[in-house]
TrEMBL record, chain A:
This is Spermidine/putrescine transport system permease protein. It comes from Muricomes intestini. Its main location: membrane. It is a multi-pass membrane protein. The keyword Membrane applies.
Automatic annotation (TrEMBL), chain B:
Its EC number is 7.6.2.11. The keyword ATP-binding applies. The lineage of its organism: Bacteria, Bacillati, Bacillota, Clostridia, Lachnospirales. CDD domains: ABC_PotA_N. This is Spermidine/putrescine import ATP-binding protein PotA. It comes from Muricomes intestini. Belongs to the ABC transporter superfamily. Spermidine/putrescine importer (TC 3.A.1.11.1) family. NCBIfam families: potA (TIGR01187).
Length: 627, 357
C-alpha cells in the first residue's frame, strides 16, 4: 500500500518536474499583466495581440509552409529512398542506412553551418528557398526511418501477386504496396513536419534577410526582451507539436487490428482512417490557401523594388522604416545582428546581398581593407551636409577619404562618478589609480576598452601596437588591480545607480540613463582623450539595390529623421539640425549626448589592428586578469 | 496427355557464386498436374519464380505455347501464381481481392460480379465477399488466393507450397480440393512442394529435384517404386539403401548373402546401391529367410508396425502388419522385383548431377 503510494508519488513528481516549465509558460500567457512578476488576472488578450502582429503572422505562415512543403517533398524522396534501400543487398543496405542516419545524429549546428557553406559555395542567395532545401535535407532520414520498418513488415509476395494478376509495377505499387506502408509514410510525414516546425539552429544558419520562421522570430524577439505575446505563441506551438505527436502515435497500425481483431478497434481504425484521409489533407489545404491569401495581401510590396538593411538590434526607430516605405515606395527588408563579428562573416561570404549595413568604426576599416565596400555616390546623398564636420573628420580615422561610410550614431567612453563619494574634480583617467578609491572602482571587462583607457592615460594612442607601450599599460593595469572592485560590463550601470561604487568606466549612452535614475552621477571625458565610437552606414560591394541604399542613407541623414531616431535609441546623433529639433532643452544641451568639439579633441576611434595584434592584446589582458 | 505447353530449355540461374539451377531442361504438358519435389534449396521455387517472371534466368529459354517469354514481365504472362504466404491484399475485401486482376483487364462490372460468385463457390466460400482477409483462417485465405488466381483463367496455375502453412488435417482436405479444382477447371497446375506425400497424392507427373538438378521425372508410381538413384529413393518415402555388388545380371550380393533380382546391364562384379522399401521386406520364421536377424526396436504406427532389424551388422527398416517383439529372431526375405538396383555415385556432386534425363 505504502509502496504503491510511493510509486505513484514518484511518478507524479517526475511529471511535475517535466511539465512545470511548460505549465508556467502557459499560465503566464494568460496573465493580463505585462510583467511576469505580477498576476494581473486571467486574460486572453495576448493571443489577440499575437494574431494582430503582422510580423509574427508572417513568420507563422512561413513556418507552416516550409514545414508542409519540406515534409511533403521529404516524404516523397524518403519513401522512394526507403524502397530502394529495402531492395538492396543486406551489406549495402546497412551501409546506406548508416550514411542516411548520420545527418540525424549530427549536431544541428554542424548541419546548419555546412548547409550554409554549401549554399554559399554554389552561389545560392540565402532565403526562403535555402531554408526549404535545408529542411528537406534533414527531414529525409526521419521519413526513411519510419517507412523502412513498414516495408520490412510488408510481404514481398503481395507486390509480386499484384504483378502476377496483371498490374503494372507502378499500379501495383500504389494499389497494393502503398496502402500497406501508408501508416509509416504518414507518420514519417508528421515526424518531418514536426521536426521542421521545431527547428531553430539549421534555419538560423540557412535563412536570409526578411524571412523568419517562428523559432527564429521568437529568438530575435527574445533578444529585445520577452513580450507576453511570445508566451502565447510558445503555448500555441507547444500544443501544436503535442497534437501532432499524438497523431503520429495513433497513426493506424495494422498489427493492432490483426492481433485483436475486435470491432471496437476496427471502429477506431476507421475513425483514424477518416482523420488521415479527410481531415488532415483538408486542414493542410486550408492552411496553404488561407495563409497564401493572407500572406499575399500583406506582401504585395515584396515584388517591387526593395532595400535590404542589416543593422544592429534595436538600433533604429521602426516608424522610420514605415515612413521610408511610404515616401519612396521602396520595400525595406530588415535584418538584425548582435555584434560586428557576427555581421562580418555574413558580408564576407556574400551569401546574402545586403544593400546597406551599419558596422562600427574599426569594422568599417576592416571591410574597406578587405575590399567589401562600394563607394557611396554622394550626389545621391545630398543630406550628407547635415552630418557635422567633426564627425566626418573623426570618420577619416577609419575611412580616410570619407568615401565609403556615413556616420549614423556615436558615443564616447568616459568616467562615471558619484558626486557624493568623489569630492575632487574629475578630469583625468588618473583618478582610477587613486588609492583613496580602493574597492570603489569599476572597470570594463573588455580588452580594448580597458587597454584603451590605460594607453590614453599614458598619453599613447588607443590603437597602439608598440610592445613597450602595451607592456607599460599592462604593468599599470596590474598595479591598479587591488583598487578595482570588479571588471564588469553591464553592471557598471546598475552598481553606479545603486551607489555601490564611486567611479566607473562607462559608455556615454548608458551614462545618460544612469543620470536619470541617480542624479548624483556625473559623466566626464578625461582630458587625455578617450574612445569615440561611430557606427556608420556602408554599402557592400555585392549590393543589388545600391541606389535604394543611397536613398535610404540619405533619408536617415534628414534632420527630422535623425531626431526620430534619437527619440527612440537615445544614442548621440552627429546631426546638429536634427539635434535642434529635440523638444526638451535639458536633453538637447546634454553634454554627455552631445559633447563639445573640445571634449573630443584627443579622442580616437578604434582601429582594426590585425589578428596578430588582437592576439597580443588578448595575451596581455589574460596576464592582467590572472594576477 | 497432349502437347508441350511449357518448355524449359537449358535454364541456369545463380545467386552470387551459388548455382541454384544448372542447365535445367523440363517440359510441362497441357492439362497436367506437375509437381516439383525436393528439399529446400533444391531450386524448385527459383524455377517457379523464373516461370512467373519474378526472376530472370542467367541463360536458357522459357518457351510458352511455342513462344519465347524470357523477356515478358510477370503482368503480361498468361499464368498466375498462388503464393505460399497467400499474399492477399489486406486492405481490400475478399471481393476486391478477387476482382483485382479482372479490373485491370477492364472487364465489366456484371462479369466481375459473376466471376467473384463463381470463384467463391468453387472454393466453397460463398458469401465471403465483404469479409476482410484478416478475418479468415489460413485455409480460407489460401482458397481465396486460389480463387483470385483462377478467375483470370490462366493457362497455367503456379502454386508455391500453397499448403505449407496449414495444419495436417486442413492440408489433406485441401489436397482433395486442389485435385477437384484442377479437374473442374481443366488447366495446367505446376505445383511446388517439399512434401512427398502431397506430391504422390495429387500429381500426374513428379519432378524430383536436388541441388539444381532434375533427379527423376515420372508418375508417382514410377518415382516411388523405381527410384533411379539413392537420393530419390531416400527422399520419397522410407527406404533401405544398401551397398551391394552386382555379381552378374539378375544376381546381387548384399547383406552378406546372394540375392535374386530383376535388374540387368550393370556388368559383372560392379559395386552398386540396392534399394529395398521397408514394406517390401518379409519377416518370416528364421529358417525360411535368406538371412537372419534380430528385432531391436518396434513402434506401433497405426496401419503397421515399424521395426528395426539387425542382420549381418546392417540395420534394416521394416514395415509389417505382423508384430514381432524386441529380441525375436526372424528370417528375412525379399521378392526379386522389390530389389531396386542403382548406379553408385562417386561423389556428392556427382550424386546430384549424376542421372539426368
Amino acid at each position: 500500500m505504502i509502496k504503491s503510494a510511493a510509486k505513484r508519488f514518484y511518478l507524479i513528481l517526475i511529471f511535475i518536474l517535466l511539465y512545470a516549465p511548460i505549465v508556467t509558460l502557459i499560465v503566464l500567457s494568460f496573465n493580463s499583466s505585462k510583467t511576469r512578476a505580477k498576476w494581473g488576472g486571467f486574460a486572453g488578450k495576448w493571443y489577440i495581440t499575437l494574431f494582430q502582429n503582422q510580423e509574427i503572422m508572417n513568420a507563422l505562415y512561413t513556418t507552416l509552409i516550409i514545414a508542409l512543403v519540406s515534409a511533403l517533398i521529404a516524404t516523397i524522396i524518403g519513401t522512394a529512398a526507403a524502397i530502394g534501400v529495402q531492395a538492396m543487398k543486406p551489406k549495402f543496405r546497412t551501409l546506406t542506412l548508416g550514411i542516411t542516419n548520420i545527418p540525424m545524429l549530427n549536431a544541428d549546428i554542424v548541419t546548419g553551418i555546412s548547409l550554409m557553406l554549401l549554399f554559399i559555395a554554389f552561389r545560392f542567395s540565402l532565403g526562403f528557398k535555402t531554408i526549404l532545401l535545408a529542411h528537406i535535407t534533414f527531414n529525409i532520414p526521419y521519413v526513411i526511418l519510419s517507412v523502412l520498418p513498414k516495408l520490412k513488415q510488408t510481404n514481398k509476395n503481395v507486390y509480386e501477386a499484384a504483378l502476377d494478376l496483371g498490374a503494372s509495377p507502378v499500379y501495383a505499387f500504389f494499389k497494393v504496396v502503398f496502402p500497406d506502408i501508408m501508416p509509416g509514410v504518414f507518420s514519417g510525414f508528421l515526424l518531418a513536419f514536426t521536426m521542421s516546425l521545431d527547428d531553430f539552429v539549421i534555419t538560423h544558419f540557412t535563412k536570409g534577410p526578411g524571412v523568419d520562421t517562428l523559432s527564429t522570430k521568437i529568438y530575435s524577439e527574445v533578444r529585445k526582451g520577452i513580450k507576453p505575446e511570445m508566451y502565447a505563441l510558445s503555448t500555441i506551438m507547444f500544443l501544436t507539436v503535442l497534437v501532432l505527436l499524438m497523431l503520429v502515435n495513433t497513426a493506424p497500425d495494422k498489427t493492432d487490428v490483426l492481433s485483436s481483431g475486435q470491432i471496437e478497434i476496427k471502429k477506431k481504425h476507421k475513425l483514424s482512417r477518416f482523420i488521415f484521409r479527410k481531415v488532415v489533407p483538408t486542414a493542410i489545404v486550408i492552411v496553404i490557401v488561407a495563409g497564401g491569401f493572407f500572406y499575399g495581401s500583406h506582401n504585395s510590396a515584396a515584388g517591387k523594388s526593395q532595400v535590404i538593411v542589416y543593422n544592429w538590434g534595436e538600433y533604429i526607430n521602426p516608424d522610420i522604416l514605415t515612413k521610408f516605405e511610404k515616401e519612396t515606395g521602396i520595400h525595406v527588408v530588415y535584418e538584425e545582428y548582435e555584434t560586428n563579428e557576427i555581421m562580418y562573416p555574413k558580408i564576407q561570404s556574400g551569401a546574402i546581398a545586403y544593400d546597406v549595413v551599419c558596422p562600427s568604426d574599426y569594422m568599417v576599416q576592416r571591410m574597406i581593407e578587405n575590399n567589401l565596400l562600394a563607394e557611396i555616390d554622394f550626389d545621391k546623398v545630398p543630406n550628407i551636409k547635415y552630418i557635422d564636420k567633426p564627425y566626418m573628420d573623426q570618420a577619416r580615422q577609419y575611412d580616410p577619404e570619407n568615401k565609403y561610410s556615413v556616420p549614423y550614431l556615436f558615443g564616447t567612453v568616459g568616467i562615471l562618478y558619484n558626486k557624493t563619494m568623489v569630492d575632487e574634480p574629475v578630469d583625468s583617467w588618473g583618478i582610477l589609480w587613486d588609492k583613496k578609491y580602493k574597492d570603489s572602482i569599476l572597470m570594463q571587462d573588455s580588452v580594448r576598452d580597458t587597454f584603451g583607457v590605460t594607453l590614453k592615460y599614458l598619453g599613447y594612442s588607443l590603437n597602439s601596437t608598440d610592445l613597450d607601450e602595451l607592456e607599460e599599460a599592462k604593468k599599470l593595469l596590474i598595479e591598479q588591480k587591488p583598487l578595482v572592485q570588479a571588471y564588469v560590463i553591464d553592471q557598471v550601470r546598475d552598481k553606479m545607480i545603486g551607489n555601490e561604487a564611486a567611479l566607473g568606466v562607462i559608455y556615454s549612452g548608458e551614462a545618460l540613463y544612469t543620470q536619470l535614475e541617480n542624479p548624483n552621477l556625473e559623466y566626464v571625458i578625461p582630458k587625455e582623450g578617450s574612445n569615440l565610437w561611430i557606427d556608420s552606414w556602408v554599402i557592400p560591394k555585392n549590393a543589388e539595390h545600391k541606389e535604394n541604399a543611397e536613398k535610404f542613407i540619405n533619408f536617415l541623414c534628414r534632420p527630422d529623421i535623425a531626431k526620430m531616431n534619437y527619440d527612440y535609441t537615445t544614442y548621440s546623433i552627429p546631426n546638429s539640425e536634427g539635434r535642434k529639433l529635440i523638444e526638451d532643452k535639458a536633453l538637447r544641451d546634454n553634454r554627455i549626448t552631445f559633447p563639445e568639439p573640445e571634449d573630443l579633441k584627443n579622442c580616437e576611434t578604434f582601429k582594426f589592428l590585425g589578428d596578430e595584434n588582437d592576439a597580443l592584446y588578448n595575451r596581455l589582458w589574460r596576464e592582467v586578469k590572472s594576477r | 496427355m497432349s502437347n508441350k505447353l511449357i518448355d524449359i530449355v537449358n535454364i541456369t540461374k545463380s545467386y552470387d557464386e551459388n548455382i541454384v539451377l544448372d542447365q535445367l531442361n523440363l517440359y510441362i504438358r497441357e492439362n497436367e498436374f506437375l509437381t516439383l519435389l525436393g528439399p529446400s534449396g533444391c531450386g524448385k521455387t527459383t524455377l517457379l519464380r523464373i516461370l512467373g517472371g519474378f526472376e530472370a534466368p542467367d541463360s536458357g529459354d522459357i518457351i510458352f505455347d511455342g513462344k519465347n517469354i524470357n523477356s515478358l514481365p510477370p503482368n503480361r504472362r498468361q499464368l498466375n501464381t498462388v503464393f505460399q504466404k497467400y499474399a492477399l491484399f489486406s486492405h481490400m475485401t475478399i471481393a476486391e481481392n478477387i476482382a483485382f486482376g479482372l479490373k485491370i483487364k477492364g472487364k465489366t462490372k456484371g462479369y466481375i460480379q459473376d466471376k467473384i460468385r463463381y470463384a467463391l463457390k468453387l472454393v466453397n466460400l460463398d458469401g465471403f465477399e465483404n469479409r476482410t482477409p484478416d478475418s479468415l483462417s489460413g485455409g480460407q485465405q489460401q482458397r481465396i488466393a486460389i480463387a483470385r488466381a483462377i478467375v483470370n483463367e490462366p493457362k497455367v496455375l503456379l502454386l508455391d507450397e500453397p499448403l505449407g502453412a496449414l495444419d495436417l488435417k486442413l492440408r489433406q482436405d485441401m489436397q482433395y480440393e486442389l485435385i477437384r479444382l484442377k479437374n473442374e477447371l481443366g488447366i495446367t497446375f505446376l505445383y511446388v512442394t517439399h512434401d512427398q506425400e502431397e506430391a504422390l497424392t495429387m500429381s500426374d507427373t513428379i519432378v524430383v529435384m536436388n541441388q539444381g538438378y532434375v533427379q527423376q521425372v515420372g508418375t508417382p508410381e514410377d518415382i516411388y517404386n523405381e527410384p533411379q538413384n539413392a537420393f530419390v529413393a531416400d527422399f520419397i518415402g522410407d527406404s533401405n539403401i544398401l551397398s551391394a555388388t552386382m555379381v552378374e545380371d539378375k544376381v546381387v550380393k548384399m547383406l552378406g548373402a546372394v540375392w535374386e533380382c530383376v535388374d540387368v546391364g550393370f556388368g559383372k562384379n560392379k559395386p552398386v546401391d540396392a534399394v529395398i522399401r521397408p514394406e517390401d521386406i518379409d519377416l518370416v520364421k528364421p529358417k525360411k529367410g535368406i538371412i537372419q536377424g534380430v528385432v531391436t526396436h518396434i513402434i506401433f504406427k497405426g496401419v503397421h508396425y515399424e521395426m528395426e532389424v539387425l542382420a549381418n551388422n546392417y540395420e534394416l527398416l521394416v514395415h509389417s502388419t505382423d508384430m514381432f517383439p524386441v529380441g525375436t529372431e526372424v528370417g528375412i526375405k525379399v521378392d526379386p522385383f522389390d530389389i531396386q538396383i542403382m548406379q553408385k555415385p562417386e561423389s556428392e556432386d556427382e550424386e546430384a548431377a549424376g542421372i539426368e534425363e
